[in-house]
Design a protein that fits this description.
By secondary structure, this protein is mainly alpha-helical. The chain has 14 helices and two strands; from the N terminus they run H-H-H-H-H-E-H-H-H-H-E-H-H-H-H-H.
């Protein structure tokens, strides 16, 4: 009976996903431009958070290099956007971020704990401050103009990246590759002892996660018209994916998606209605979640469901 239920449940779930994709693809046809812009920002945060979870979720290595990979995509768009087609620029930003992540991974993924966290954050800060110094002292101007792209085009491209990131995260979780990553997170020494090349596996996964961050940065730059190192390598882009993933819960793929979508929308509301108290309110909410919901909102829902099932079994 359980197997029959799974057989019927899978087509139903795929049907729901297909309908959701159709809805998202047609939204620009019947909503206000403001909502399209808001959804683009929400998708940006979801992609970065899901990409962060691809590596940091199973391995438990907390990376704070998200801003570096996103910023590489932003500056790729600024430097190449005037001479190359948009799709080529996005692919270039993805590949540059991928290569940078490979280099960082080979250097740092033998580090663990706080050493890895500090080093990855230092990479983002180093790139931000180096570009500030370079533009101030070498070019004489800080920042660059970016070729603008209409909001609908940006929305559709970010939607494609969103689907690709989710599909990649899902396939990795369901594969032997994902199982090996999980074993590294649970006990790396034991995983190495049974023949898993932990350093290579971590480095490749780290680069895959950076690929989508770079693509997102490249397309998002076209929304802003003007960028500088402070915008491109904003430190919040290193911390927000971590907080969003923790808020939603990393145990299930839906957790980071929910956490990023909810907090991105909450950020929009707070910055609009409470601009002077935004960071205080936002920080307070996150502290409460981290202290009292260690497995995130998805973990809380699963706990409620298990409690409900136990009560049903106890009272047939």
């Amino acid at each position: 009976m359980d197997r029959v239920g799974v057989i019927f449940k899978r087509p139903f779930s795929l049907g729901l996903l297909f309908l959701a994709l159709i809805l998202l693809a047609t939204i620009p046809l019947y909503v206000q431009p403001y909502l399209v812009i808001l959804l683009t920002t929400v998708f940006m945060y979801i992609i970065i958070t899901v990409s962060w979870t691809i590596f940091s979720g199973p391995t438990r290595y907390i990376s704070l290099a998200s801003a570096a990979f996103f910023g590489v995509g932003v500056y790729t768009s600024a430097l190449l956007g005037k001479s190359l087609p948009l799709l080529v620029v996005i692919v270039a930003g993805s590949l540059f971020s991928f290569i940078l992540a490979l280099f960082i991974g080979l250097l740092t993924l033998r580090l663990r704990g706080m050493y890895f966290i500090i080093f990855t954050f230092s990479i983002s800060e180093l790139m931000r401050n180096f570009l500030l110094w370079w533009e101030t002292n070498m070019t004489g101007t800080v920042g660059r103009w970016v070729i603008m792209v209409d909001h609908t085009t940006v929305y559709y491209i970010i939607l494609v990246i969103f689907v690709m990131a989710l599909l990649t995260a899902y396939l990795i979780r369901r594969s032997r590759f994902g199982l090996a990553l999980k074993s590294i997170g649970e006990q790396e020494e034991a995983a190495t002892h049974i023949g898993i090349n932990a350093t290579m596996l971590k480095t490749i996964t780290f680069a895959i996660s950076a690929f989508f961050m770079g693509a997102t940065g490249a397309i998002m730059a076209t929304k802003w018209k003007y960028i500088d190192p402070r915008i491109a390598f904003d430190p919040l882009l290193s911390f927000m994916p971590v907080l969003m993933a923790i808020f939603g819960g990393t145990g299930q793929l839906f957790g980071p998606v929910f956490g990023a979508a909810f907090l991105a929308y909450l950020e929009e509301i707070l910055t609009t209605k409470f601009p002077y108290y935004y960071m205080l309110l936002f920080g307070s909410i996150l502290i409460v979640v981290i202290l009292f919901l260690p497995h995130g909102m998805v973990g809380l829902v699963q706990k409620w469901r298990k409690g409900g099932l136990k009560r049903q079994n106890a009272n047939p």
